[in-house]
Amino acid sequence: MCCFEVRALCDTRTRALLTTRLVSRGANKQAASRANIKGIAAQSKSLAEARAAREEAVNLSRVKSTFLATMVGPCLLPLTRDTR
Predict the structure, then answer these.
(1) How do residues 49-70 score in pLDDT, each as one tens digit?
(2) What is the DSSP string of the chain?
(3) CA 50 to chain centre
(4) Is 84 contained in some domain?
(5) What are phi and psi for residue 2, nearest 5 degrees?
(6) How far apart are CA 22 and CA 84, in angstroms?
């Protein structure tokens, strides 16, 4: 083999190696992108669930406040009334 044949063979092997590395990098990037998309979807779902839970808690707090306002007033009235 002459030096040109050796150089051509090395270039071919180098190109094949670089191509393999680039393809694997592309696959890794795609896998990472898919993982990011799944993570973002899970985060969005959790955020929506947290918002719904907060809204329910606020509504229950309003109901409790209304209940206490309507029940405590009549309960305290006889205690504060003058019974002479």
Answers:
(1) 999 999 999 999 999 999 888 8
(2) --HHHHHHHHHHHHHHHHHHHHHHHHHHHHHHHHHHHHHHHHHHHHHHHHHHHHHHHHHHHHHHHHHHHHHHHHHHHHHHS---
(3) 11
(4) no
(5) -90, 175
(6) 96
Residue type at position 36: N
Domain extent at residue 45:
1-74
Whether 81 is in a domain gets the answer no
Give the integer Cα–Cα distance in Å for 49 and 37.
18
79 within domain boundaries: no
- Distance from C-alpha of 3 to C-alpha of 11, rounded to nearest angstrom: 12
pLDDT recorded at residue 68: 85
18 in a structural domain = yes
